[in-house]
Amino acid sequence: MVALRENYADFQAAGASLVAISPQLQTYSQELVKDRRLPFEVLSDAGNTVAATFGIAISLPESIRRVYADAFKIDLPTYNGDDSWSLPMPARFIVDQHGVVQAADVNLDHKVRPEPASVLDVLKNL
Fold this sequence. Notes:
It contains seven helices and six strands; from the N terminus they run H-H-E-H-E-H-E-H-H-E-E-E-H. The strands form three sheets. Strands 1-2 form a two-stranded parallel sheet. The chain has a two-stranded antiparallel ribbon with strand order 3-4. Strands 5-6 form a two-stranded antiparallel sheet. The protein is α+β, with helices and mostly antiparallel strands. Helix 3 links the parallel strand 1 and strand 2. The radius of gyration is 15 Å and the shape is globular. The chain has a single domain, classed as 3-Layer(aba) Sandwich (Glutaredoxin), CATH 3.40.30.10. It starts with a helix and ends with a helix. 40% of the residues lie in helices and 20% in strands.
């Protein structure tokens, strides 16, 4: 989200609105916005329903759940308000003014994200 924050003015200059969607409860999303000084909204996707609709929701296996809880000290059920241990794959969707998805980047590896420049290229060609 830091890269999105750092390039927010460029997205605005291209005429785009930026919104992030998280399975976290709204309280935690608001904390994220404040702590990271995000100039855009982070909406709450309770139960990962939007992620499931887009086909990007995954259920974490038990071995990964233990890593989250023990090593990272992340209580995912508390943050997300349910015990599904479901997360969205990292994804970016560029949706035009008519609600049509013009580009999508999805990767199971949470470390792989599209560069903001590639998003700007798509925006300029809309």
